[in-house]
Amino acid sequence: MKKFFNQIPVKIGVSILLIETILLSMMGVFYVRSFNREIDQRVLEKLALPGILMSQRALNYDSVNNHQIIGELVHETVLETFITKRNGVIFYAADELMLGKHIKQFLAPEEQLQITDDSARNQQITFKTSEGNNFISSLSEIRHNDKNLGFLYIKIDSTKIEQEKRHIVLLFLLGSLLTIFLTTLVEAFYIHRLFVPRIQAISTVLKRTKTGDLTTRVSLFGPEDEFHVLIHLINSMLNTVSETITTLTDTQEALKASGERFRELSDLLPEGVFELDVNGYFTYVNLQLCEVSQYSREELCQKLQFTDILIEEDIQRSSENFKERIEGQLNVSSEYKARRKDGTVLQVMVNASSIVQQDQFKGLRGIVVDLTEKNRLQKQLWQTQKMESIGQLSASIAHEFGNPLVGIHWLLVDIQHLPNLDESQKQLVTLGLHECKKLKNLITNFQAFAKPSSDEKRYYDINQILDDILLLYKKYITDKNVDIVINYQKNLPRIQVVKDQVHQVFVNILMNALDALHANKRKIFITTLQRDSQVLVIIKDNGCGITDENLDHIFEPFFSTKPEAKGTGLGLYVSHLITKNHNGKIQVESTRGEGSIFTISLPVEGLAL
Ligand SMILES: Nc1ncnc2c1ncn2[C@@H]1O[C@H](COP(=O)(O)OP(=O)(O)O)[C@@H](O)[C@H]1O
Ligand SMILES: [Mg+2]
Fold it and tell me: Total domain count for the chain?
């Protein structure tokens, strides 16, 4: 119901109804009053008529005896009539008992007629008795020759007149109601037709807009009134909104794309990238930072401050730096020690700049460089340089030491052949010769190691390279009393390698295997095979094996468990570098006391058919 009355057409209709009712009521009061006055006037005129007729002697005084004659003249039911003198004393009446008496005796209390000597005028009064009856009584002057002869009193029953008056009111009321009803109906219909369809059209379009449909517009219909203008304005507003939203969506998508591009690129960076809020909490981290710190993105961005991933000693310094940046100090890169999730510590360099939006500091963004790798590379470079100098040194050692050693060797041979040497002296000389041989071997190794590689890749049969090595070291192997078991895959594909380098790898691993063998049951298995796109060379010994602890270090340069004269700790390191250079790898399986298996895999890709 409330909803019904809230509708604009209903409100307008009700307002019109109220205005019409008020206007018609006012008009009604005015018209009813004038009608009543008109009726009263008419009655007065009618009641004055017998008096006028008597004044003109056209009506006899004794006609008052017959109410019917007067009644016909005034067209009303006459109840009483008589004639008085000027002073109010009755001198003509139908009832003789009234004669000579004063009129006042016969007037009702409500009937206020003024009868005095000077009341020479027509009077009329409408009154209602206490019993509720309506009457009109009148006193009409009877004049003759400009002389007042007396008054004619007529009393009539005005019930009919009152009824007539009520009828008029009733009729007017009914007429007004009918008019109000009909006009309201017509107006309501007209207003409804004028407003409702257009309001509905507007609200349908606005509802659709609310659900995201910005393509519909309000159709223009109806007269060219304010509504027309309003619809026009709504449509142009919808056009503007839709254009703005399209621009906004485009901008948003461009922003999203640029954000994604930034994220993808930042994830590809080798350095850690981060953003911090004003309180030092991570708001963005790239993949690399997650990998370095071992924390997930969620862990870093949802609960950690930058100080949470630094070692305690660095927290104060880093917090001070953070504060300085907030206060607008220049950016400087600082080195800190960070703590990974697993507790291990790493050296990092942080380069950050402040995030300022609308002149307000919003945080910091920057990059984190893991210095561990840099330090390792530096160390490796230093070691490579060291190795390079060892290589050069070995060449000169071989050169400088080689000739004197030959001299010493032959000197000792001469001494050995001296006739008067006792047993212990002979033993000492043999020992000297043995040491000479060892030195010669070392020099030869150094020479081989120092010799620059051809660096030229060609297609070779790996089985052939291995056979060459075995032939070369045949005597050495036999002297060592080692049983070599060969198991080559036939038709092994030829692969592209730098021959002397790969040769070096196999020799290094074979020599290690020989060194590892126990005193008896000395066996080495050499197997070749193709697996998928790899050629595998497996060198297996039944020697001492490698401890788990040493297994982590055997490929490091200068790591050796052998006595100083024998081991340089460079064999596996160099072998590793060479295989890596050939896009291959070396894998080791070893059981302490049982032996080791070294598997060298080299890619077949680009093989010669
Ligand atoms: N087949 C093997 N069996 C047992 N230990 C081995 C074997 N190969 C290598 N090792 C271990 O690896 C170390 C490093 O080898 P390498 O780099 O060739 O240096 P080196 O032979 O001069 O000691 C050796 O000292 C040895 O402890
Ligand atoms: Mg070795």
Answer: 3
